[in-house]
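Q: For a teaching session next week I want to show students how multiple molecules come together into a single three-dimensional assembly. I've collected the sequence lines for a complex. Could you give me the predicted structure tokens for the whole thing so I can convert them for display?
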Amino acid sequence: MATLHTVNKSPFGASALQSCLNHAKDGDAILMFEDGVYGAAQGTIIADAVAAKSGSLSLYVLKGDADARGIADARLIEGVTPVDYAGFVELAASHDRTNNWL
Amino acid sequence: MATLHTVNKSPFGASALQSCLNHAKDGDAILMFEDGVYGAAQGTIIADAVAAKSGSLSLYVLKGDADARGIADARLIEGVTPVDYAGFVELAASHDRTNNWL
Amino acid sequence: MEDNIKKFLYVNRKAPYGTIYALEALEVVLIGAAFDQDVSLAFLDDGVFQLVKGQNTDGIGVKNFSPTFRALGDYEVTKFYVEKESLEERGLTADDLQEIMYEDEDDDYAEKPSIRLVNRAEMADMMAEQDVVLSF
Amino acid sequence: MEDNIKKFLYVNRKAPYGTIYALEALEVVLIGAAFDQDVSLAFLDDGVFQLVKGQNTDGIGVKNFSPTFRALGDYEVTKFYVEKESLEERGLTADDLQEIMYEDEDDDYAEKPSIRLVNRAEMADMMAEQDVVLSF
Amino acid sequence: MKFGIVVSEGPYTHQASDSAYNFAKAALENGHEVPRVFFYHDGVNVGTRLSIPPQDERNIQKQWSALAGEHNVDLVICIAAAQRRGLLDEKEATRQGKDANNIAEGFRISGLGQLIEMGIQTDRLITFGD
Amino acid sequence: MKFGIVVSEGPYTHQASDSAYNFAKAALENGHEVPRVFFYHDGVNVGTRLSIPPQDERNIQKQWSALAGEHNVDLVICIAAAQRRGLLDEKEATRQGKDANNIAEGFRISGLGQLIEMGIQTDRLITFGD
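A: Of course. Below is the structure for the complete assembly, covering every listed component.
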């Protein structure tokens, strides 16, 4: 009964990612897309908080959005998996519900 | 040559108030309005950061927006002055420029 | 899951008036009440501000919709989950919220409070039990 | 202040693509260049993301407008103030930004960088010197 | 699997309507169904036929209308949200005494009940917003 | 004193257009001038005559049109932003081959130069947005 959480806002401008991390349960997945992809990059002031969850949660980033913002795969936090839209759809299908942190 | 800064976003959901506080110069004024009025209330996790600036900055809140959100005058941080729209206009007129933290 | 009865959760994370999401979320809840689903409302982050008592919008020319929350009990919308940590961060306690009651038809129409204070972990648990989560 | 010459500052605090503000700010800068004012651009908070190099929007079906920044020198828009603290918080250095150059007509058309790294206090000072601040 | 999709923000201003389109397209291409997309809040503005984006930009309304035509997707615009924002079909315009309408091909205006119904009848619901 | 005002968000969805209206009204009532208001980004949607807000809500478009009529305020909608979002006047509709227009009384569509000009010619500029 796991949940796919989606986050589409920059973690530096908005509190959505932090709130999502606070409410996701072990075994859930988080997909970062649109401006949410900035949460998937290494070396930022929130990267440690995200990386700390990579054991208990499955973390994904939408590759098209990361590419658009100049975030190369090599800059992703370890444990964050890039997916395309087909992968996004499959994540939504394989989890019991989506919870969209707008 | 002082500036009137305006902040219209909740300090809990967005970074605008913090960024404004980081960039306002001594002698400047900050008007909190719309959802920005939550930054003017006592007892919140950001109230100390706002109160700490009440010596070097002039802090204002738009009373109509505070009333709409159930923030009574008695709950305002000490040093925050409620103004109406006429007061807002005079603040804009009496400062050399406005800097709107959207 | 009973046939055609789903657990619907409406998630409110935004403050009222600055944007229309809170008002238009309420419009969905009102319409949704006619569908006989198992409805819950979550108020967390800035969403807790929607329930604060003493809202008076005369000074900004916008309609005060906060009284509508008190009418939801009549539509059998009676589960308002409000997160304690969100209140605390914002300098609020349960006393700062409006009283929202409903009549429990399974208990001789006794008046009961619709607001259920929950901590963050309980909010997460409740969210994880839903079939449909609608966020505003 | 010279007659009819004002100091215009365009403030960019939002990331590109997720919202249109960055693109439509750039459209204002392009049109504004025709008015012979004293123009500066500020990039702080998420606005620094607008200047990151290597943007490729093929996967999302949206136009990549980042090359346009490099054309602004031809319109005599040559002052890009970028905040160091904003870069650092986001794990970025100046090397992660595109190279944006202009030809200095007062210096025998020497090629010079348009990006000026400033710290937070310098950003605040620069903002306080403006006549008109337009925020996006 | 049946996906229900909510679009909560207007075109061009927020990426939401683009992301929702890309998601819907990928779902349909991968054998899923998207019986309905519900446009709420500023999302209703996706359905205007009067938009004229620059030649080198995507036309979001036409993308949706084409997808709906190809795959029989029901594009529903919320009537209450649409009235506030000035998105009308011919019937509503006549009923309200307005001299014009602006709805695009493939979209229809209906009530919020269609959103709840979508939540009940689909297997997964996802909202694209801000 | 002359105030220039920018409205960057659409009506009802964000409070920006209400706040800008209240500010403009207060400025005019207190002896200041508001020669122009410039509608940009989603702010262009304030100028549609097709909106039908509920009876118990304010009508933001009509408030602006009335204020402009009383005080001779120039309500300018940015043409580039308006085209993307489907806000047209009769001339633009004809030129672009569209079968309808939706601009309200008291508003006019013009270029971004009008925003810069407002910045140059007013004493203070203030933006209401999100």
